[in-house]
Q: What sequence folds into this?
């Protein structure tokens, strides 16, 4: 199944002190570069990649993929980035991932996509937690997302609660880097080279 990957790098990163999370460096490279590498190493790589970003658009565009600012004002959260991706690729099956999804199993995309038929959305979980921002989504959900956002909804979890949804469990831990300390801690374990 072909798919388009949508990388979320458009948030305010409040827990990181407001820095642009996708451009924070880990082992000398921005997180977005590691995430793009993780996608390239998938057993089933994406047909297209989109980057949702609201700052430093030229820096993200330098990676050679379309950059999509939010179409809604005032940074309404990750769902605004998802909506921009749905609007840019309305007929595509989307794989949504945040810009800190830099360690993914090689079969990550394939497993989510395999579970997608019969569901509207499939998410990922690991031994520690559920990751509602790691999703495979069927096309045709833009109207439902627009209605949820118009009603004041902002939570991915809240939106998923109203959809046909299942989660795929991975034995490997999937990083969730919310603070600069999280990045530094991962950097201490990061392989050299």
A:
């Amino acid at each position: 199944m072909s798919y388009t990957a949508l990388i979320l790098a458009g948030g305010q990163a409040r827990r990181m002190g407001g820095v642009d999370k996708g451009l924070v460096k880990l082992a000398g490279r921005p997180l977005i570069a590691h995430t793009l590498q993780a996608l390239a190493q998938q057993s089933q790589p994406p047909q297209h990649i989109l980057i949702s970003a609201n700052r430093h658009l030229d820096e993200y565009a330098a990676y050679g993929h379309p950059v999509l600012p939010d179409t809604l004002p005032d940074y309404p959260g990750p769902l605004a980035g998802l909506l921009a991706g749905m609007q840019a690729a309305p007929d595509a099956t989307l794989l949504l991932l945040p810009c800190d999804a830099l360690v993914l199993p090689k079969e990550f995309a394939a497993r989510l996509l395999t579970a997608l038929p019969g569901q509207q959305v499939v998410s990922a979980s690991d031994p520690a937690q559920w990751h509602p921002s790691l999703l495979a989504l069927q096309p045709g959900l833009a109207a439902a997302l627009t209605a949820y956002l118009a009603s004041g909804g902002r939570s991915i979890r809240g939106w998923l609660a109203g959809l046909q949804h299942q989660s795929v469990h991975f034995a490997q831990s999937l990083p969730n880097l919310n603070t600069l300390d999280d990045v530094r801690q991962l950097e201490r374990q990061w392989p050299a080279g």
Observations:
- The two ends are 33 Å apart (CA to CA).
- The helical segments are 31-40, 57-61, 78-88, 108-115, 142-150, 156-160, 180-189.
- The first strand starts at residue 4 and ends at 8.
- The chain has a mean pLDDT of 89.
